[in-house]
Amino acid sequence: xxxxxxxxxxxxxxxxxxxxxxxxxxxxxxxxxxxxxxxxxxxxxxxxxxxxxxxxxxxxxxxxxxxxxxxxxxxxxxxxxxxxxxxxxxxxxxxxxxxxxxxxxxxxxxxxxxxxxxxxxxxxxxxxxxxxxxxxxxxxxxxxxxxxxxxxxxxxxxxxxxxxxxxxxxxxxxxxxxxxxxxxxxxxxxxxxxxxxxxxxxxxxxxxxxxxxxxxxxxxxxxxxxxxxxxxxxxxxxxxxxxxxxxxxxxxxxxxxxxxxxxxxxxxxxxxxxxxxxxxxxxxxxxxxxxxxxxxxxxxxxxxxxxxxxxxxxxxxxxxxxxxxxxxxxxxxxxxxxxxxxxxxxxxxxxxxxxxxxxxxxxxxxxxxxxxxxxxxxxxxxxxxxxxxxxxxxxxxxxxxxxxxxxxxxxxxxxxxxxxxxxxxxxxxxxxxxxxxxxxxxxxxxxxxxxxxxxxxxxxxxxxxxxxxxxxxxxxxxxxxxxxxxxxxxxxxxxxxxxxxxxxxxxxxxxxxxxxxxxxxxxxxxxxxxxxxxxxxxxxxxxxxxxxxxxxxxxxxxxxxxxxxxxxxxxxxxxxxxxxxxxxxxxxxxxxxx
Length: 594
Hints:
Protein name: MBL fold metallo-hydrolase
Distance between the termini: 130 Å
Number of strands: 34
Keywords: Signal
Number of helices: 10
Radius of gyration: 44 Å
Largest sheet: 8 strands, mixed
Mean pLDDT: 91
Helix content: 10-25%
Strand order of the largest sheet: 24-23-22-21-20-19-33-34
Strand content: 35-45%
Low-confidence stretches: 19-25
């Protein structure tokens, strides 16, 4: 039977009326229970109508407040006000204790006039149930506690759930007092008979609160410039009946011995595991480079270092001592690492006068050097220099005022054939006032003998670059007894077996060799080495082989500025004799045992 639309509507209306009648006639109230959840408390019964929001009753308990209501006695699941509510449901109160008191401590040091910090206050709150807790959301009223020294108190306030507790924190405010001074002498060396200028002394006072200030009303202890030498002078300062002192060092020099100007000599590490030479010298505004080993890829390592000092891209002087790879490869560079002749404008090149070299690296060196000459560089041999020929000079004034000079010293193998390429080495003497610094490349015994014989006025030196990387063939007594070095700097990877053959592996001959050390020891123990090679024994080859390299002293910088000598190293300033490598691999000479 097909119903009309009017009949369908009438049926729907009738059903709706019946449903409403049934709904009105039903009891839609729900009974729930709220349990205060502590001993002796009774449940609270609440009747809820259809659609009513679940509203917990107000309950109280001495010393506590209700944190919330939960679905179980253990109070793990909170009640959702808008969730389904079933008749007979029971809800449980969770109580938190109220704070009843607090204690506070101040952990910092306070000085008169200082500013106390809340961060230094530790507050512990005591609760009604006997528990405690450290809190951070407290307030402190410090007032003017640091107006004067003494024991002071500040008020601490903490509020939790409408309950406020107060307490006090004790602060010990100390008076500010003089603690120490640091005195520095900023003047130059004083010539015999000269005066110590108090304006060249800077004194900074430090106080117990950490503050500092420069003071001028200090006292200077006894000082005499009658005799040359370094003196320790006491500086004292008094404030509020507190006296503290420090010392300064002042050097007195003979008038003719004053080494003026600025000079620094840098013995470089070369960025790889191969021994080689590269020495950079800064004299005033003049830049000098002696050799550029050890391999082609050393070029970038050397230039990265030099660029910190040579800011105009010009090397006024380049000295190339001899034709071995470990002294010239960096000038050449490679397709991946541009050589030093290409990186810098080199104004004057001074090189070895003779060579037996036929190697590819030597041919590459000649090509790069010729290209530099084509671009305007002057190039002279050491022999031309000592003879003052073709524009070359035996002595070059490096600073323009004569304070620092570079002299090319004659030795016979500039002209005669040598039995070893090393003896062709160019020998350089740097002079600064009465201070002298000698660099002899890889010169060995025959060359050293000739150097001494042909330079009877060869002076004693402050610094000697250890010949031939500290080899047993160099630093022979004929030379050492003449120059009597105060410092020796060696460019090498100490302990390297790079130059040893399987049949002649005498580890005492590795750089610096035992013989070299024994000969140098009577003159000085100030011996420094750039790098250290770790070696291991290769069973398959039945010989020692190089393992890995690291810095020993690192880049060694020897400076003399206005007569004041300093030596600083990039890794450490440990003397060779005090290194672990020396103690394990060399025998200490008697001269170094004293």
